[in-house]
Write a structure and sequence with these properties.
Number of domains: 2
Distance between the termini: 26 Å
Largest sheet: 9 strands, mixed
Structural class: alpha+beta
Strand order of the largest sheet: 6-7-5-8-4-3-10-1-11
Low-confidence stretches: 113-117
Length: 401
């Protein structure tokens, strides 16, 4: 007897009922696409949080109390903003026990970005002598410090190293572009020295249609590192106790806020994914149960021609696995497409950071999603395949007539 080619037979069976096969493919695609898209999205947020927090480098961010929400929005969502406080705050923080390093920053919201009007750019001025966020990266990767009208651009800014860009009538030269972090505070910012920012403000009166009003005794925020002998939370309380009208935001507090948002989002995503998977499992299982009833005569003839019970069992399982495998591949493509199309909109509305995981992680997630899709097909067809394998040839042929 000629050996039965189960794969060819399974493909032919699926082709015969093309509409039903396509519907089952769609179910498998929705399940795998939702699972992959949700998983990659969550990993991307966690990745951005990890890298962005490392890049920030500070244990505490001190800002004017009335501008706390603006500062949080700027840090998490990168929304350009401007607010100021007296430089005396910087000197006062230096004297507080538990403070190891401090560095001032200026936040400036530009009137326009000449080269690319569609981009929300955030101007951040730093003190090269004390900065521990941008300068370490610059000295390691560009091997120079910021001088004069030199700036460093975030990775999302559509400018190249060597380009010249104007702000408030003053031209600046880009000497480097930072690696992506997923946090718009870094990716959509232009970093310059505080001296350059003060000169820009001073010259804007005669060079810009919208002058920048900025005094040299003003700063926007103070970045603080602890000496390791006190927790950031306790040092933040000390700072707010010692100084009036300031808010000391511990980096752990920001991270925990994002994590709480992620936890709520993750719970919703897991719940939706679980419901979709259960529905997919039921629909595929029920469909193959009906398929077995519909094909009793065919399966009986197959048994009568010499096929064993294990052949019938493997045939039904193979058909289900083929559907979920192909549907899984389609779902992965659709899932990635929707992820790239909607990730920016979702992150903007939720004010959360996002950075696509590394290629290795993405490959692992893709492989895991495909495996999960195949396992879904295998589990859903176990009962129908078992029932089909128990059919007696004569009774199956007679019932199917």
């Amino acid at each position: 007897m000629k050996k039965i080619n189960l794969f060819k037979l399974a493909v032919n069976n699926l082709r015969r009922k093309l509409v039903r096969t396509l519907l089952l493919l769609l179910v498998a695609a929705v399940v795998s696409g939702t699972l992959l898209g949700a998983t990659v999205f969550i990993f991307g947020m966690q990745n951005a949080l990890k890298i962005g927090t490392y890049r920030l480098g500070a244990d505490i961010l001190v800002v004017p109390a009335k501008n706390e929400e603006q500062a949080r929005t700027a840090l998490l969502a990168g929304k350009p903003t401007s607010f100021y406080m007296d430089r005396t705050v910087l000197d006062a923080i230096k004297k507080i026990e538990g403070v190891e390093r401090v560095s001032p920053q200026l936040f400036i919201e530009p009137s326009s970005f000449t080269c690319c009007y569609s981009v929300d750019v955030f101007l951040v001025a730093i003190d090269p002598a004390t900065d521990f966020t941008v300068m370490p990266w610059l000295e390691k990767n560009v091997r120079q410090s910021l001088t004069g009208n030199q700036v460093v651009a975030g990775r999302s800014m559509p400018v190249m190293t060597g380009a010249t860009i104007p702000f408030f009538g003053t031209s600046f030269k880009v000497v480097g572009t930072m690696e992506p972090t997923g946090m718009k505070f870094f990716d959509q910012s232009i970093f310059m020295t505080m001296d350059a920012a003060y000169r820009m403000a001073e010259n804007s009166a005669g060079q810009s249609l919208q002058p920048l009003l900025l005094d040299k005794d003003k700063i926007s925020a103070v970045l603080v590192k602890t000496d390791g002998k006190i927790t950031p939370d306790r040092l933040a309380l000390r700072i707010m106790h010692a100084l009036d009208d300031v808010k000391a935001i511990a980096s752990d507090e920001v991270i925990n806020t994002v994590r709480r948002q992620l936890a709520g989002l993750l719970t919703g995503i897991v719940a939706v994914s679980a419901v979709l998977w259960a529905m997919g499992l039921f629909m595929i299982g029920f469909a193959f149960y009906m398929i077995v009833n519909e094909r009793q005569r065919e399966l009986g003839m197959l048994r009568a021609m010499g096929a064993k019970r294990k052949h019938v069992f493997r045939l039904i399982i193979l058909e289900s696995v083929l559907i979920t495998l192909v549907g899984g591949v389609v779902g992965l493509v659709l899932g990635f497409g929707l992820l790239f199309a909607l990730s920016d909109m979702i992150c903007t509305s939720l004010q959360l950071p996002y950075l696509l995981p590394s290629l290795v992680v993405v490959q692992e997630l893709v492989a895991g999603s495909l495996l999960f899709s195949v396992v879904t097909g295998l589990v859903s067809a176990l009962l129908p395949a078992f029932l089909a394998s128990r059919l007696e040839p004569y009774e199956a042929i007679r019932t199917g007539e």
